[in-house]
Amino acid sequence: MLLTQDTLQSIASDLVDTPTEASFLYPEKILQFGTGVLLRGLPDYFVNKANQQGLFRGRIVVIKSTSAGTADSFEQQNNLYTLCIKGLDEGKEISSYEINNSISRVLSASESWQEILKNAENPALEIVFSNTTEVGIVMSEDLVDDNPPKSFPGKLLAILYHRFKHFAGDITKGLTIVPTELITDNGSKLKKIIFDLAQQNSLSADFIEWLTGANDFCNTLVDRIVPGALSPADYVKTTAMLGYEDQLMIMAEPFRLWAIEATSDRVKQRLSFAVADSSVLLVPSIEKYKEIKLRLLNGTHTLSCAMALLSGFTTVKEAMQNAAFSQFIRLLMQDEIGPSILNTAISQNDVKDFSSKVMDRFANPYLEHKWESIALNYSSKMAMRNIPLLDKWYGSHSEAPQLFALGFAAYLYFLKSERKDSHYIRTINGRTIEIQDESAAVFYEAWQQPETVVHTVLSNVGLWNRDLTKFPGLEESVDRQLKQIIHNGALQALTILEHEK
Questions:
Q1: Which of 238, 262, 283 lies at the terminal end of a domain, its last residue?
Q2: Residue 230 DSSP code
Q3: Over the stretch 219-247, which tens digit does the pLDDT of each residue have?
Q4: Which residues are within 8 A (CB) of 436 and not within 5 positions of it... i.e. 6 or more apart?
Q5: What separation in angstroms does the CA of 18 have from each of 11, 55, 75, 101, 253?
Q6: Which CATH number is 420's domain given?
Q7: Where does the record place the Mannitol dehydrogenase N-terminal domain (predicted)?
């Protein structure tokens, strides 16, 4: 049995949450660029949750912009799909299943552009979602009359201009635009491109004024791992349990966060789905949440990645099953990274709460997050995520952060490679890893003099934009931990340090 609106009544509601009949009748309030799993696993999840509580009462028209795949699966299933939520919550394994009916239609930009423009005439339309990847928010040579414009900003401008003309510049008919692309200041960058495109297209001053006064572009931060389709084995097991087939079924972790910069009452009123879940944050600034995620989630990944690889672990969940490694992660966040990010906006409770969730996320048995992937572009990640913490640490400490030093020493040892043609290769316990790091050559050269490698790397201003040997005790601590790793192995070095602490 295939999941469709007709087969819903045959599905056991004690196993999966099914949508209410009323929610199929809600008006189309949202235009969404993209059919990807992040959109379906996060924004569309929040909309569906609010709809099922009778709070938002609006559905989504999806614009499929790419040529990859078709909208057939959505059409065959009346745009229904199952979201499987699997992972840990406070250390306990959880799983839940829900059928999402937030999407009303999926339209192809290349095949149904005129219908998409017609949809811009809908008076109930209030919101735009997007996830067109980090290369989607770019300037182009698009013309507003192209059928359709090639770029996402070009399409959005054409829709806004059509809406402006249809409603004769009505100030109440603007849209709240909420991009989820993983770039800094996504809303501000999209807004600038839209205005630049409008100028490039010589659109009227009245339209520019409407664009400014009637529309809102929100900067956002999204955080949820949505791996997407289940593995073939998990799919067979899940569909057998639920009693139906679903070509659009996806999985997501329990953790979710959507921070949206919203200062006006107009934005808050339109984004009313936020009231259904405390993980949607309508806040004056998202900087606090960006900092917490960058340092405690991404930064912890970076400082533990080499330790994991040198210890022979392949995935994050595998490493977290090791008591010493799990303790390293916890102490790194609790004792060093956390205290380094405290300020007037970030409290100890913020750090404690997010750190606890990171432990659950790292240990999620349903995620196959490979350390080798985390090690891509390692040096730039270290420079951006971790090195800035040193200033904050030394602002209140006179001694070096020892867990940081261990993580950095492991990173340094991981980048001790062999050069083969133009490639840099690292072999660990017989396993070969190609180093994909923009500074691989720098580390290769530094390791030609192993007795001075710590000083050479820490003092390299080209890597860090500063001389890290100026931080008291850091060079000595990294050097000591590097020797421990080389002589005793990464896990033993970790165990020794934890006993010392």
A1: 283
A2: P
A3: 999 999 999 999 999 999 999 999 999 99
A4: 375, 376, 377
A5: 8, 17, 18, 9, 20
A6: 1.10.1040.10
A7: 28-263
Same domain, 423 and 388: yes
Global pTM value: 0.95
Residue 246 shares a structural domain with residue 266: yes
Assess contact for 322 and 335: CB atoms under 8 A.
Answer: no
From the list 58, 79, 63, 25, the residue with the least C-alpha distance to 126 is 58
Q: Is residue 201 part of a domain?
A: yes
Check: CB of residue 60 under 8 Å from CB of residue 44.
yes
| Tokens of residue 109, six digits | 């930009």
Element (H, E) at 29: strand 28-33
The token duo for 260 is: 């949206």
User: Phi-psi bin for 169: left (phi > 0), alpha (psi -120 to 50), beta?
Assistant: left
Residue numbers of the domain that contains 136: 8-283
Let me know how long the chain is.
501
pLDDT digits (tens, 9 = 90+) for 267-289: 999 999 999 999 999 999 999 99
Burial profile 6-28: b = 16 or more Cβ within 10 angstroms, e = fewer = ebbeebeeeebbbbeeebeebeb
Q: Are residues 346 and 412 in the same domain?
A: yes
Domain boundary among 283, 308, 335: 283
- Burial of 35-73, coded b for 16+ CB within 10 Å and e otherwise, reads bbbbbbbbbbbbbbbbbbeeebbbbbbbbbbeeeeebeb
Burial of 179 (0-12, 13-18, 19+ CB in 10 A): buried
Burial class (CB in 10 A: 0-12, 13-18, 19+), 269: exposed
430: exposed, middle or buried (C-beta count within 10 Å: 0-12, 13-18, 19+)? exposed
